[in-house]
TrEMBL record:
FAD binds at residues 211, 236-237, 250-254, 267-274, 288. SMART domains: ETF. Belongs to the ETF alpha-subunit/FixB family. Its cofactor is FAD. One of its GO terms (molecular function) is electron transfer activity. It holds the Pfam family ETF. One of its GO terms (biological process) is fatty acid beta-oxidation using acyl-CoA dehydrogenase. This is Electron transfer flavoprotein subunit alpha. Residues 5-195 form the Electron transfer flavoprotein alpha/beta-subunit N-terminal domain. Binds 1 FAD per dimer.
Length: 323
């Protein structure tokens, strides 16, 4: 049986986040040949609709309202519930982002529906879908099926390959008018920390530093390497606690979860709480002067050495390749 599946697109500063396109690919699998309807919520989002269609959405429904300019659970859930009531879908896919982690359980509870969160893969056999998700801080994976009712899932960024973009695709774009009321919180202003460069959660290359980096200045070579490879800088909690960098860079159980193509860990011991945030990276390179460091147990390539010697050598070599 084909299904109608909604996908919540996420935009930041006027651009759609990659996870929106990954969620469309997941929705296509669940729809099994049925219809994938993208939902865009915000104060001015209609201009983003065509990109969702180019990535595979069959049509787009927008809800535009001044109260949707910034995310609030109340505002977004009212808007999304209005679309759900209109569309009556058999599935809804979210990104497993800060927004998706907040909104998806709220919608699941309103619909009394099953939600599989943090999905890294979907195995499909016709109409039967098995969702794969990490458990025990990434030490194992479980496979979950939703037997009855509407399927809700949130997909971990960087795990499901988006469909190829096709700008010639076309689809209907319609607007739903929703009266957003009774907001318990109104966001007056968002002041973002200035982070130059690539978003850590979606970066294809992450260069992470730990307590072994020893100081704020010690992160400089890591930033240079990240810039060179078009990646983002991350950190262990050890480095954040030592005030070498901001907590927004923390990766791990109580930080961000990243799944880049390349993760370089420099001066990080590999505590289980850190591995929880990065062990699903495609290629892991560890640089540590202690050959017994636990990080080498998850690394594909290990370099036993002083990061202050190894990182500049890597920068030199990558520059040669690029020139
Ligand atoms: P250390 O363990 O001190 O390791 C530093 C490493 O650097 C060592 O292996 C050392 O050999 C190496 N080194 C030193 N100098 C050099 C050099 N010049 N060149 C190369 N290598 C060098 N941690 C996280 O990262 N993320 C989390 O989300 C997180 N959540 C937590 C939640 C809880 C509830 C708890 C209890 C802990 C959590 N932690 C988390 C902390 C975690 O247990 C570790 O303490 C932390 O990851 C250690 O950080 P580190 O590897 O940078 O430091």
């Amino acid at each position: 049986m084909t299904k109608k599946v909604l996908v919540l697109g996420e935009a930041r500063e006027g651009s759609l986040r990659n996870v929106s396109f990954e969620a469309i690919a997941a929705a296509k699998t669940i729809a099994n040949g049925g219809e994938v309807v993208a939902v865009l919520l915000g104060d001015a989002v209609a201009s983003l609709a065509q990109e969702m269609i180019a990535y595979g959405a069959d049509r787009v429904v927008t809800v535009e309202h001044p109260h949707l300019k910034q995310y609030t659970s109340d505002g977004y859930s009212q808007a999304l519930m209005a679309v759900i009531e209109q569309e009556n879908p058999e599935g809804i896919v979210f990104g497993h982002t800060a927004l998706g982690k907040d909104l998806s359980p709220k919608i699941a509870s309103k619909l009394k529906a099953g939600l599989v969160s943090d999905v890294t893969a979907i195995e499909s056999n016709g109409d039967e879908h098995t969702f794969v998700r990490p458990i025990y801080s990434g030490k194992a994976f479980e496979k979950v099926q939703i037997k009855d009712g509407i399927h809700l899932a949130s997909v971990r960024p960087n795990n499901i390959t988006p469909l190829e973009k096709d700008d010639s695709r076309s689809g209907d774009v319609s607007a739903v008018s929703v009266d957003i009321t009774n907001l318990r919180t109104i966001v007056k202003e968002v002041v973002r920390k200035s982070t130059d460069g690539v978003d850590l959660s979606e970066a294809k290359v992450v260069i992470a530093g730990g307590r072994g980096v020893k100081s704020e200045e010690g992160f400089e070579p890591l930033k240079q390497l990240a810039d060179l490879l078009g990646g983002a800088v991350g950190a262990s909690r050890g480095a954040c606690d030592a005030e070498y960098c901001d907590y927004s860079l923390q990766i791990g159980q109580t930080g961000k979860v990243v799944t880049p193509d390349l993760y370089i860990a420099a001066g990080i011991s590999g505590a289980i709480q850190h591995l929880a945030g990065m062990s699903n990276s495609k290629i892991i390179v560890a640089i540590n002067k202690d050959p017994e460091a636990n990080i080498f147990n998850v690394a594909d390539y290990g370099i036993v050495g002083d990061l202050f010697e190894v990182v500049p050598l890597l920068i030199e070599e990558f520059k040669k390749i690029q020139n």
